[in-house]
Amino acid sequence: MRRMLYLVLSAMTIASCVPLDQQYAQQQYEDVWYNKPLMVNPSMFEQVLKPEYQERSIIEMAEHPLRIQPELMKQSFQSEYSIYGYGTLQSGKLLRRSPNSLLEAVFIENGYLKCRIGYGGGAGEDQLIEMGLIWNGEYYYGEHGLTVDVAISFKDLDLRRAMIIEKVKFNLLALQHPESSRVSVNLLGYHRVLDYSYD
Question: What pTM, to 2 d.p., does this model score?
Answer without folding.
Answer: 0.82
